[in-house]
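Wed. Picked up where I left off yesterday with ANKF1 protein. The coffee machine is broken again, so keeping this brief.
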Amino acid sequence: KMTQQMRDLQLAQARKPPGPSSPNAAKRLYRNLSGKFRVNYTSFDEGSLVGRGEKEKLRKSYLFQSNAALFEAVELQDLDRVQELLKQYSPEELDLNTPNSEGLLPLDIAIMTNNAPIARALLQAGAKESPHFVSLESRSLHLSTLVREAEQRVNELMAQVVNEAPSADCSDKEKQLKAWEWRFRLYKRMKAGFEHARVPDAPANVQLSVASSSSVQVTFWEPLNINSAVVTKYKVEWSCSPTFSPPLGEAVIDNLKNLHFTIKGLVSGTAYYVRVSAYNMKGWGPPQASVPPFAIPSNWREYDGRAPRRRGQAEALDHLLGQVKTVHQHCVCHEPCKNQPQSRKHSVSKSLKHLFHPGSKFLKTLKRGLYLTAIFYKDDNILVTHEDQIPVVEIDDTYSCLLMQDFLWFTKVSCMWDEILWLRQCVTVSQSSCSCILQTRFKMLLAISQMQGLLGIQDLGQVFFEPVKDKQGNILIVTLKEVKTNQTFESVRWVPICKLQTSRKSVSSPEEPTALDTLLISVQDKLAYHQQSSHALSPGLYLGYLKLCSAVDQIRVLVPEQLPNILCHVKIRSNPNISREEWEWLQKMASVEEPVPTEPEADTSQNPLFHELQVAIKELMTLVNIPLQEAKDFRLYSQEVLDFGDEVSFLLLLPPSDDVCTAPGQNNPYTPRSGFLTLPLQIFELGEEK
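Structure written out below (tokens, as returned):
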């Protein structure tokens, strides 16, 4: 079959006057293609194409040339060009796993020429080996055929060049001869690489851990000995017997971006043995048993049989809210609000066009009171009114001292932007009979409705954790929302933040700036806070540090600026699960009041969590600027593991009981390094829930 393929290839080449490229011509073609591929085919003037069919033909033509360029780059061992093509095109566009006329794939050429860097780059992109090589014999036969037929073609062309008189046709044959000589050397090098290769060594650092009550996870490294051929896949085997007789299952891993595998569907409380072996073009290498040799699927909750804390809570809250709405449907407070001040009546807009309407209700200046401002941003631009002002509406012009409880109530309302109308109807009461607190909160709902109507947007975003105040008695409650690029708005005016800051004419002195000036000066910090508070942790088990400080009207919690929705923390390991055995050890340590493990011990192989905690505690103490010797008085919270979904969990490290919460006026002897802030506890809880 291979011989027939080569004959077909030769006939096709004989019909083409130019013939195959010489090594230098191949390099020139490769360079030319490299220049062309720096511009995507979609950048050409599509208006000049006759129809969709021709566009598709042009597209396929360029993709075909990109596939040819990839083969050229691999054959010429040009790692930079290979990486450039893999970055520019998808595996499908490159036909990464479609064999060429010689039955070879780019990965075959890379591994048989023992070019490990290019082979790894191709493997990371999802490259596979040729399906033609079903055995060692088939690969050897294929390579021998390629070498023999290339040598035969070289001899034929050499005889023609020697016997023919100098002419244009002879010059073409000389070019073909050089190209085939170069390809002959390539095939011989591939054949030699295959013949001298050996099976890979066993994978290194095979670690086994308990992933859940029904799964275990195995992680491993490439074989340490790199003298053999490139590893292209791994095999994970598991069994209930240390001899793996009988085996329970196996899985082949050919996606080498992450060298780990989770074995699921196991029986809780049963010991499972795991081993891993590597494969290259010479076959499977010896297996490597895991450390520890077996694992028992379990979860810390099995220790005392407790149910997940949050099971059914969201559903119960939704049901409770539905019941409240049902009760209020026919009550007197469901009547439309008629007590709105005349100055607050507005029509609800369906777009942002009212930002630029002269009759909009946005304020230009503040006059001692409580206000609401909404900051919408996209990249480095911010949304402004037709007068280049950040949208501001008034809540209460007689309110000059925002109580913390009112502010916290407002932040809770921000979780229900879609329910503001219903909340207004429920809070609507006679102004003469309601308390000052209820009147203030009713005015807050009116201001939210006004802002939503003028902007034509219900979701005003996240409330900044503290209002902006000035010495003139103005208070600004700030909401922040990032506008995604795929959202469309009508008649929107976006202004670069830097331009808005430089063009705004301040009406206050630098010593006593107004709340609006303060907001504008610090807007980048607030946007950074908003972006960072929406970041999620990568999967894993973390050690968190709980430190509180109290004030007259609130308790605040210490958090990192880079991730203000999470406690100060360090990562213990990538596996978030705490097994039953690990939890038993933690309970034992807590029951005898042992200090937290800060000093290394000689043998920690039987309890990897012990060593992991030692490293994490040392790192955490350095992070929050606490001497390591002080950590001996700290303790691990042993009542539960804090689970945040299925992929993130926390163990808490607590200071001594008297130091968990710093009282007003009490000095904290260990001040954290820069990069931390304290949030009101209720604000932190809301951000954590989101």
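Quick read: Residues 162 and 400 are 102 Å apart (CA to CA).
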